[in-house]
Amino acid sequence: MTAVEKRRLRQKKYYRRHRERIKAKKLEEYYRNIDKNLANQKAYREKFIKPFTGKIGTGNYNITLAERHKEEWKKETLYLYLLEMEEESGVVFYKYGLTKNIKNRLYGIPYKVKVLQCLKMDKYNAIYKERELLNDINSYCPEKRFGGYKECFKK
Predict the structure, then answer these.
(1) What would the pLDDT profile of 80-117 be if each residue is shown by its tens digit?
(2) In angstroms, rounded to a whole number, what is the distance separating the alpha carbons of residues 142 and 125?
(3) Is the pTM of this model over 0.70?
(4) What are the extents of the domains in the chain?
């Protein structure tokens, strides 16, 4: 056994023996510096977490990547779809999205689904078209989550 492994073993044993005391010290330290910690958390949230504006996302594809791989993506095909979904409570909502296989896409959705539109497009133009369609729509968050549930809306 190397010296490093021995040291790690001793540290593990020490931690197991004094776990509660270590946790209590960390908690005490946190509350002693609560103002500083809350200020740091607030600064982090303001810098990195975008507030919800009522507008939905514009899809998962990155426009920068689309521009970088324009020639490749013009050769690939995607389906741009519009789905109408109905919750058990009777609320009807819609979703635009992109997929390679529409049958597989419908598989994971836990609602009654109707495909209203399905256009086959090249990947590059499909990304921009989806962004354009989602641009001025207010979001709706359904009761049950599924892939793309944050991109749903009501008409």
Answers:
(1) 999 999 998 889 999 988 899 988 888 888 999 999 99
(2) 28
(3) no
(4) 3-48, 63-153
